[in-house]
Amino acid sequence: MLKVIISLFLFGFISNTYSKNVILLSIDTLSAKHLSLYGYHKKTAPFISSLSNKCMLFKNHFANADHTAPSHMSIFTGLYPVNHKVFRGEVYKSKINLTIAEVLKKNNYKTYWFAPITDISLSKQIGLQRGFNDIIKPGLYGSNLKSVIQKLKKILKSKNNFVFLHTYITHDPYTPPFEYTKDKIINLERYLSFKMPISWRWGEGVIRKKYWDNFNITKKKDVDKLINYYDYEITYMDTIVEKLYNSLGNNLDDVTIILTSDHGEAFGEHQYFRHETLDDEVLQIPLIICNSKLKKGVDYRLTESVDLYNTILDELNIKNTQKNDGQSLIDKNKKLKTILYANNSRSYMLQNHKYKLYLDSLNNLKVLNNHGEVIKILNGKETLEIARLKQKLINYKLKQYQ
Prior knowledge:
The chain is α/β, with parallel strands linked by helices. The protein folds into two domains: 4-336, 3-Layer(aba) Sandwich (Alkaline Phosphatase, subunit A); 347-401, no CATH class. It has twelve helices and 15 strands. Strands 1, 2, 3, 4, 5, 6, 7, 10 and 11 form a nine-stranded mixed beta sheet that branches. The longest helix has 29 residues, at 220-248.
């Protein structure tokens, strides 16, 4: 009986738990906007799409940040970035809000980290690895699939294991195998080294720059080529996930797998590339939870990364005794909060089913409707509803300085 929970982080103390294994599969830089499950015109990930037939698909799921470190910290703690205060290299210092791995460890779970530790976004120094028994680097890559499968099979022979499994396959520089692109311009072996556990700063300064120098992002044909390479990376990643899933076979009979991402990717939709923006192409990410108490179906509620912490605890019957910003998604009929938040180090975003508000460091406001159209605020006169939402967003921003 397969249980899939993507983006898994648990919180709590010893309670009426029951034996189960959990795998949190975090596919870095995977935008929902590039998956047919979410309306994309290309079938980039057929296997992941097939999971929706037996799992719970969340159609309106959003990240709380646009970068790896703060987004994963929100998953691991159930806290918004303004509350955990990890953006680019800062250290998570709270002793009150334990990470999901710390809580699970207290509840007699063995915790395994399958991810890099040498880049700044996932480094040991910032605190993401708090509570993990075993550190198994560098995460999931196409070249080490066999090794990952062997290790997971051994782990899953017993109960009460939590596995954080991370992959950078879909992160830039987009270097899908040659059989996907048939393009000899890009030296794939050269850029593929970025996918391995090397210094993040070195990767940005050398390999990443040389890759992007091949493209003129002011030209549509080059942007289209980048999009195609990214889509091919998603397809390649999908084949890796399928092989992993099929190879584990019966080992998944009592495993909850959570499939998600930390953020998506932009290709000039709002003038930005990569993930330097709080727009939907970056913040809307997939969430699929299989073989959990949720069974299967489609959930249209607004959900966010901070909800995964409480969801995992609820799935494992672990009582959440600490206050955070998330809510459990286990009860599909439960009415959730209708406002979501996200931010990076310079801008802040609030959204509900009707509006999306953006606030910059100077408190300049931009308002969009649910169709993505800018709402003009004449003479600085906001409607009562927008004024109320703006104040909520200002209050959210101020938490960063508390």
